[in-house]
Design goal:
The structure holds 2 protein chains of 2 kinds. Chain A is 53% helix and 0% strand. The N and C termini of chain A lie far apart (90 Å). In chain A, 5% of the residues are buried. Helix content of chain B is 47%, strand content 0%. Chain B has 6 helices and no strands. Chain B is elongated and about 80 Å long. Classes of the chains: A mainly alpha, B mainly alpha. The interface between A and B is medium-sized, with 18 and 14 residues. Chain B: Complex I is composed of at least 49 different subunits.
């Protein structure tokens, strides 16, 4: 079943590849959060890449699913409590700091001028 | 006096050639917008230059093959994980935060340049 390259097999593999890519992205960002100094980050990023590369040639769908779930569990366990998020993004320090004022509201600058002037 | 007028009639200063080169899109009015805070969007050339610099400094990439049209996996022979690394490097370069789904779709220099150019907060 999993040996033949049917459409369902390819669809599952594609979904798994996308999960792996998103997991690698989040793990890499997390590694950068933990290892702030760049030389440490490069070392940790290489180790992370080695771990992903070691399982590159697995073909069985169920094994891949189990490995992805295990990887996501490890990622959840090691998530940084205070990650660096770009300020204007959701979760950052500048997010919704200056929201756009609601439309229709206008300040009338009449400086106290009265009607009988 | 007549000599001066005759000389002046024959002298033509090449003022027009400066604006005729077309290097700036609005030659008369560009200096009026220089100090406005709404003018800080990146120009397309700047985006292209910075994106190509980031891609060229990736260790697994051959710098001579990098053009603005290059596809990371097909033309440069990179892996999908390398793709993820390049997108992260672009995020760091332009101080962007790209959502995971969008970042997954960025596959080539073209898409990257378009996405960054159209992003309002690209720095």
């Amino acid at each position: 079943m999993s040996g033949a390259t049917t459409a369902a097999y390819l669809a599952r593999r594609a979904a798994q590849k996308e999960r792996v890519r998103i997991l690698y992205r989040r793990a890499l960002k997390d590694t950068l959060n933990w290892a702030v100094h760049r030389h440490l980050f490069y070392q940790d990023a290489s180790d992370l890449r080695e771990k992903f590369e070691a399982n590159k040639h697995v073909e069985d769908l169920d094994t891949i699913d189990k490995m992805i779930v295990a990887g996501e569990a490890t990622y959840n366990k090691w998530r940084h409590p205070d990650p660096y998020i770009v300020p204007w993004a959701p979760g950052g320090s500048k997010f919704t700091r200056n929201p756009v004022p609601p439309s229709g509201i206008e300040i009338v600058y009449d400086y106290g001028r009265e009607e009988n002037d | 006096m007549a000599l001066r007028a005759a000389v002046l009639r024959h002298i033509r200063l090449p003022v027009q050639t400066l604006t005729a080169t077309g290097s700036r899109p609005q030659p008369q009015w560009s200096f009026l917008r220089l100090f406005s805070s709404h003018d800080d969007h990146l120009t397309k050339e700047e985006v292209i230059d910075r994106v190509l610099d980031v891609v060229k400094s990736f260790p697994k990439v051959d710098p001579s093959k990098v053009t603005p049209d290059v596809h990371f996996q097909k033309d440069l022979g990179l892996d999908s994980l390398d793709n993820v690394e390049i997108v992260m490097a672009l995020e760091e370069e332009f101080k962007l935060e790209i959502p995971d789904k969008e970042a997954d779709k960025i596959d080539s220099c073209n898409l990257a340049i378009e996405y960054i150019y159209n992003h309002p907060m690209a720095g």
